[in-house]
Amino acid sequence: xxxAGATILYGTDLGNHRTAGLSLSELEALGEAGLSNAEILxxxxxxxxxxxxxxxxxxxxxxxxxxxxxxxxxxxxL
Length: 78
Prior knowledge:
Layout: H1 24-32, H2 37-44, H3 46-52
């Protein structure tokens, strides 16, 4: 699908309530499918925001705030 131009989004049928966020096995599966770490990060952040029309990336009064913090560079060590 990716090679055909489809947008790949992070997702799991397991639910994320036990992982406090993202499932490492799902992230690894996206890597095994050929996505780079940067593309995997996009699949869980900016791509869903764009597809579903979330207000991510807007800096204006009343816009929702979102923050992701990393201990390491996720493009190097996802």
